[in-house]
Design brief:
Layout: H1 3-36, H2 40-70, H3 77-103, H4 107-125, H5 140-163
Helix pairs in contact: 2-3, 2-4, 2-5, 3-4, 4-5
């Protein structure tokens, strides 16, 4: 093969490889861009599901706290036994829900959920049928507030991570605003 034919063959082969590589890169680029940008609608749905799961998790704890608050006002031992049985069932429900919360949350939410379960266990164990009557207590806010605060902080951080404006590091979003 003479040098002109070899050059032409090498040039054609290189051009063909370049064209194929260009099509491969162009075909893969939109796919990579779609995967890199989070789906905001799916993120919003996940955020809503998480928020609802946290609210649902606190419902048995709130009912346990309500039972503990009203416990001193109950004077009928039969009513107290029935309420204690209900509180134990609510505690079991709370314990069943805890792993679901642990799967979808950060470490602060998991530890707050564990603390909420432990506090509810303590409250249910303290429900004594023969305890003297007395004034109504206030426990609901104190019991669930640390968990709800941790959930709110976690969801705010997740929202910031998923829905925040993308900007180059070190540049202010208001860099173009001038006070002069």
């Amino acid at each position: 093969m003479d040098s002109a034919a070899a050059f032409t063959a090498a040039f054609a082969l290189t051009a063909a490889a370049g064209i194929v590589a260009r099509y491969i890169v162009r075909a893969g680029a939109p796919l990579a861009r779609r995967q890199a940008v989070p789906d905001s609608e799916e993120g919003r749905r996940a955020h809503t599901r998480s928020r609802q799961a946290y609210i649902d998790f606190t419902e048995p704890a709130t009912r346990i706290a309500a039972t503990a608050e009203l416990w001193p006002a109950l004077d009928d031992p039969a009513a107290r036994r029935e309420r204690r049985t209900q509180a134990r069932e609510l505690l079991q429900d709370l314990k069943r829900r805890e792993p679901v919360i642990a799967l979808d949350a950060g470490p602060d939410v998991r530890s707050a959920a564990r603390a909420l379960v432990e506090d509810c266990e303590r409250l249910v164990e303290e429900l004594d049928v023969s305890a003297p009557t007395g004034p109504v207590l206030t426990l609901q806010q104190e019991l669930t507030m640390p968990f709800l605060r941790a959930c709110r902080e976690y969801l705010d951080a997740e929202s910031e991570r998923h829905f925040a404006l993308r900007r180059p590091a070190g540049r202010s979003l208001f860099a173009r605003l001038s006070t002069r």
